[in-house]
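[recover] target loaded
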């Protein structure tokens, strides 16, 4: 068997993305422990702080998450009294999510997180923008 075509870890685009995602999530962990939430829960809260009231489907679209992944996250956030899940009267299949007062108050603490992450990563605004542009370009190609 010819092993010259064997994929090598160092040649793969997927591996650095895997490592970066894991490491970035690790940097967020101590900051989010202060808010009693995980990184995926933080993503949900950011969407709600921005939009205030959304359906489960809308949150899923914004975060590229399916309802099977999102529902347990939402249940945990509701158990912490950060959000309320409520079925629409007009269509009980649709569940709306909105912030409680407690969930809304967390936004003040969460506003400190991006600056702490920027300090930790020590990247210039230009570097950050170039990285985001390259990642968005790649995502557009993947989603085609």
């Amino acid at each position: 068997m010819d092993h010259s075509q064997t994929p090598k870890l160092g040649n793969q685009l997927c591996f650095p993305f895997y490592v970066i995602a894991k490491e970035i999530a690790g940097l967020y962990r101590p900051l989010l422990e202060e808010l009693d939430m995980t990184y995926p829960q933080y993503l949900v809260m950011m969407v709600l702080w921005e939009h205030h009231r959304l359906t489960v489907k809308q949150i899923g679209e914004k975060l590229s998450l399916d309802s099977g992944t999102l529902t347990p996250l939402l249940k945990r956030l509701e158990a912490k009294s950060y959000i309320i899940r409520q079925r629409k009267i007009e269509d009980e299949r649709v569940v709306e999510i909105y912030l409680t007062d407690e969930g809304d108050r967390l936004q003040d603490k969460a506003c400190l997180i991006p600056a702490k992450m920027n300090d930790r990563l020590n990247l210039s605004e230009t570097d950050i923008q170039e990285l985001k542009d390259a990642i968005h370009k790649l995502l557009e190609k993947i989603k085609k």
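[recover] notes: The first strand starts at residue 53 and ends at 55.
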